[in-house]
Amino acid sequence: MHIRKSIATLSVAGLAALGMTVATGPAAHAGGYGCAGSPSWSHSVANGTVYDYFDGTNNCSVFVKSTYAGTPTSTAIQIMTNAGTWGNYNQGNFSWYAGPSSVNGVGKCIREFVYEEDPSGNVITDETTPWHSCS
Fold first, then answer.
1. Which of 41, 108, 109, 132 could share a disulfide with 81, CB 3.0–4.6 Å?
2. Which helix or strand (DSSP H or E) is residue 74 part of?
3. What are phi and psi of 57, to 5 degrees?
4. Range 93-121 average pLDDT
5. What confidence tens digit (pLDDT) does each residue in 52-98 have?
6. Is 113 helix (H, G, I), strand (E, B) or coil?
7. DSSP 8-class letter at 88
8. What are the angstrom distances between the C-alpha of 11 and each of 8, 18, 20, 70, 94?
9. Which residues face 90 on adjacent strands?
10. Apex CA 9: angle with CA 6 and CA 3, to 5°?
11. Residue 22 in contact with residue 9, Cβ under 8 Å?
12. What average pLDDT score do residues 89-117 get?
């Protein structure tokens, strides 16, 4: 166990010495941060990335933080269809990501609304993704 940790530490240090950035954070959760299905779309927003998964019926999305990752901040995501159907609103003081938020996306386009505050309560992300995953 100690040897594996040392090798991992040396690998990260070696990449850093080569000028390569190494992202660390939570391991990806089974099914995609609590979403079922396969990855179907991703989009960079201010301070993070929105990931969408599709299981043949439902689109399910999460907002993974890049700014203040590892620090609990007010973070939220909500998915909606172009037919006006809203998925659940997932908001809380999250360290790594908000979500999942899901909705039946068969025959519809979807988009997400994402929100994040910094530790002082200032809004740093308040965005709507473009329509996507139209089926």
1. 108
2. strand 73-81
3. -130, -50
4. 97
5. 999 999 999 999 999 999 999 999 999 999 999 999 999 999 999 99
6. strand
7. -
8. 5, 11, 11, 22, 29
9. 77
10. 15
11. no
12. 97
> What DSSP assignment string belongs to 31-45?
HHHT--SEEEEEEEE
Q: Which residue has the tokens 């933080």?
A: 65
Q: Give the separation between CA 105 and CA 77, rounded to whole angstroms.
A: 16
Whole-angstrom distance, CA of residue 63 vs CA of residue 47: 10
Q: Which two tokens stand for residue 102?
A: 């899901």
Length of the chain: 135
| Whole-number pLDDT of residue 32 | 77
* C-alpha dist (Å) from residue 131 to 38, 109, 110, 118, 135: 19, 6, 5, 27, 11
Gyration radius (Cα) of the chain, Å = 17
Q: Name the one residue in this structure whose structure tokens are 């003081």.
A: 93
Give the H or E element holding residue 29: none
Please check whether residue 39 is in contact with residue 51, taking contact to mean a CB–CB distance below 8 angstroms.
Answer: yes
